[in-house]
Amino acid sequence: MEGADGMNEGTPLLGVDDLCLRRGAREVLCGVMLQVRRGELVALMGLSGAGKSTVLRAVAALEPFDRGAITVGDARLVPGPLPSVSALQPLRAQVGMVFQHHSLFEHLSAVNNVWLAPVHVQRVPQPEAERRALALLEELGVGHRARALPREISGGEAQRVAIARALAMDPPLLLMDEPTASLDPARRDELGETLRELTASGRTLLLTTHDDDFVRDYADRVAVLADGVVVEEGAPRQVLAQPTHPATIRLLQKKAQ
Amino acid sequence: MTRATRFGLIALLLVTPARQVWAQIPSPLVWGCDPEGGAPYVEADSADPSSLVGFEVDIANLVAAHLHRQPRFTFVAFSSINQSLRRGDFEVSFCGLEEITARRTGMTATIPYYQFRVVLTVRAADKDRFRSLADLRGRSVATLAATQSFELLKRAEPTYGITAVSYEDDVHPYEDLVLGRVDAVVLDNVVAGREQLRRGDVVAQPAVLEVGYYVGILAPANTALRDQIDGALLAAMKDGRLEVIFRKWGLWNDDQPALYARVLAERQMAPPGQAPQTRTSEGWQQAVRNYLPMLLTASVVTIGLSCASMALAVAVGILVATGRVYGRWPLRLALQAYVELTRGTPILLQLFVLYYGLASVIRLPAMFAAFLGLGLNYAAYESEIYRAALEAVSKGQLEAARTLGLSERQVLQLVRGPQAFRLALAPMTNDFVALLKDSSLVSVLTVVELTKQTQIFATNLGSWVVPGALCAALYLAMSLPLARLAGRLEQRWKAPTA
User: Does the residue A28 lie in any domain?
Assistant: First the structure.
């Protein structure tokens, strides 16, 4: 896998500063502060409806926000309506996203899903893009499903194809929305290993999850979101072993039930 | 005797005189015509639009009075007169009907009551240039479908190198003559005289191309009433009442006394009541052999026109749908207006407006107007299908494409469009089959396609059975493979589960 920029390990790649976002009268997020350093795997936890996915969507420039700022490398998002496609180019080049339901293009085969953007956005010649796409799928263990349509493959396989599709554009930052949601424990560990390899090669990951075991095993850091802000943040073993905020406690209780 | 039977008997006694009285009141003489043909045959009275005037009305009144019955008028489309008579919708039709056509279709005809002249009408400016059919080589000559004039033109086509164009009514040929879509009209002097008076810029040439006779027609079996009507007409010929009628309408000329003399003389020699001609089975087979190639040619017109119109509908439909999904509000509003206007008004009206209504601005050739009319009409329906399909593509798909850096245009071309197309395929096929059938409507623009050719066939044959079956078979041969193809494509691109 081609490494992302690993030169500045330890410096923040993603900075979310005082992010506020309203939907109608409801304040979904207000004052979210979060930093993710290069090569880090950060998990965003919180009760359902806490706004975890909204943070990811704001970083991916899918949701406009009302206050604060988001920086990814040298790209910066400011409040107000979403910028034009051309203005978003620097951000898009640095942020990849894997959706909870994968959102693979239903009319295209797995490999075609992966090479579509390199060919049409980066103007990579198609045979070259296809060769790379096949290699990526192979690396992620789904090379044998390259010619299958999304509806013909399992959820776990679809997730790997979706990861390959995002990685094909070689973004330094990869966002993953609930990647553990529909995986059994064995598949979950496979995913964890894959993500660990990604961070080892310099990729930066921000994901949302409800799975505290997964967070303990694989995340470098965890941030807990409640009432529209990050209420607790730190190393998983510490935050999840001695939760201080009521929301974190409820989150872990809920899991235990 | 039980009480019930006694009661029944009394009731019968009470009813019997009433029934006898009823039997003495004659039933009305129901006659039919198409008032669209207008003056001087049958038209709504300008002073009282609920009543009718015309020489056919006077003749129907004259006949009804002779039979001591009340005349009652029934509306019928000109091209359906024979079928309606056979169905028994009315008893007799007086409608400028030609003897030669009545005989050929096996209907029962009365004695002729008017001799007409088939004449050539041209624009006043061409009066000296186009004196006869021979002067019209390479040009289009219009007439009314299923008439003696149409047959005359068909026979003249190879001889004079003209093209016969048939119309559904007898007004539009003259309109198109004035507009320059055709260079002459061949029709009865009765119509030609009316149009010459009405327009002023057309002239009927004096030469008589052929003569023909107006008759009343009845169902094949109804010879008894025919004989009664003949009696009424003969009496009116003798005592001059027919002459009064035709003089009143300015149609009396020297041809009529000669006709009446001949008819009266023939009647004295041969008693009435010859059986009408009927078709033998060889005649049927011959007719099918004669017409099948024409039906096949007409099918090619139908399929060609339908494919071209559908292509236009798809192209325009995609543009309209894209505009309605992605455009700014003024564009969206304009496109919505187009869709609502097109879907909310009859396609027949749109075809008329396009062909005749716009003629003062732009003179579209008939086939092109048909292509445009069908295509633009169906474009409105297609655009709604595509719009719904575009909106049915899940938001997740679009967001995934955006996060990959695809521009909105690329998202549409590479992700949204192809998926929407798969969703739209089934309703599109339905629409194509519907368009294939709706293409029959363009016969009002003088385009001879499958249904029109069948109608001509049926009118000549005097029956819809064989032509109808052949026509249906040809339509099915075109639409069934399409339905199968669509089914297969749909299977292949089956909408994903979840």
Answer: no
pLDDT digits (tens, 9 = 90+) for B34-61: 887 777 898 877 777 778 889 999 999 9
B404 in A contact zone (CB under 8 Å): yes
pLDDT at B447: 82
Query: Is A158 within a domain?
Result: yes
What's the N-to-C CA distance of chain B in angstroms? 80
> Which of B493, B376, B374, B377 has its CA nearest to residue B426?
B493
ipTM score: 0.91
Residue A130 within a domain: yes
For B408, which of A85, A93, A165 is closest by C-beta distance?
A: A85
What is d(CA B35, CA B41) in angstroms, rounded to the nearest whole number? 8
Rounded Cα distance, B396 and A162, in Å: 12
Give the whole-angstrom CA distance, residue B24 versus residue B384.
Answer: 62
Q: Is the pLDDT of residue B454 over 90?
A: no
Tell me the HSE value of B260 on the side-chain side, using a 13 A CA sphere: 20
Residue A123: domain span: 107-170
pLDDT given at position A247: 86
pLDDT digits (tens, 9 = 90+) for B362-399: 888 888 999 999 999 999 999 999 999 999 999 999 99
Interface residues of chain A, partner chain B, Cβ below 8 Å? 60, 62, 85, 88-89, 92-93, 95-97, 99, 101, 103-107, 116-117, 120-121, 149-151, 165-166, 169
Nearest to B414 among A96, A97, A116 (CB): A116
Q: Which domains does chain B have, with CATH numbers?
A: 282-492 (1.10.3720.10)
Q: Number of residue pairs across A and B with CB atoms under 8 Å?
A: 64
What's the predicted TM-score (pTM) here?
0.70
Residue whose tokens read 């095993």: A217
Residue A219 in domain: no
Q: Please measure the distance between the N-terminal and C-terminal CA atoms of chain A and give it in whole angstroms.
A: 40
Is B397 close to A62, i.e. CB distance below 8 A? Answer: no
Q: What is the DSSP string of A78-120?
A: -SBSPPPHHHHHHHHTTEEEE-TT----TTS-HHHHHHHHHHH
A117:B415 CB<8 A = no
Total domains in chain A come to 1
The pLDDT of residue A166 is 94
Chain A contact present for B414, CB below 8 A? yes
